User: What shape does this take?
Amino acid sequence: MSLPFFLATLRPGLAAGEEVTLSGEEAHHALVRRTRVGERVVLTDGAGTVAECTVLAADRKALRAAVESVDRRPPESPRLVVVQAIPKGERGELAVEMLTEVGVDVIVPWAAARSVAVWRGERAAKALARWRSTAREAAKQARRAWFPSVEEPASLSRVVELVRSSSVPVVLHEAASGPLADLPVPGRGEIVIVVGPEGGIATDELAAFAAAGAEPVRLGSSVLRTSTAGVAAAAALLARTPRWR
Assistant: This one.
């Protein structure tokens, strides 16, 4: 059985024999899980450091633990970025959850021209907070040492910039003639996947991506929802990299 896994603030240079304290929501989560003195747990800072610990004390406010071992893991390569057109309703959070579980490093919300959902003002702040919370909880569930970042909503020019600077730019489009499977996948660098909205990527957006060096590709004969297309593409590409070997 896997050890309980929590997000914690871990100081740089943390070593076995030291003590760490888990507080706030994570301490409450540990209490809800009935974490007891003497139990072993795993703590991560979400930035590559993972510590296996033994619980020394636990109450409603904090959990104190002794560090038994520390593992520092480098970022995985190639880096995977998904530009996700904002779906309506809860499908955005579903996409974020699955993208996190599959191993995506950066998730970029994109207000595409044909996106039905619109993030503005207070609604935008709340929606972005939900995406970030979803990514954090999914990363814990997946026991990731490196948690994904969820960026501020991107404009078309920002997405074009990401496409232009990537090692492998991928723009998904059901009408594309070339399959995703034909794209070369490097062992390093950065892969950027652009996922359009349910209404499809607009003609001027496709033209902008093509000018930046990204011709559209298709996943297969089926047309996937925007909330699942990015996950399918990420998995198909990751399976051909050292990250999944």
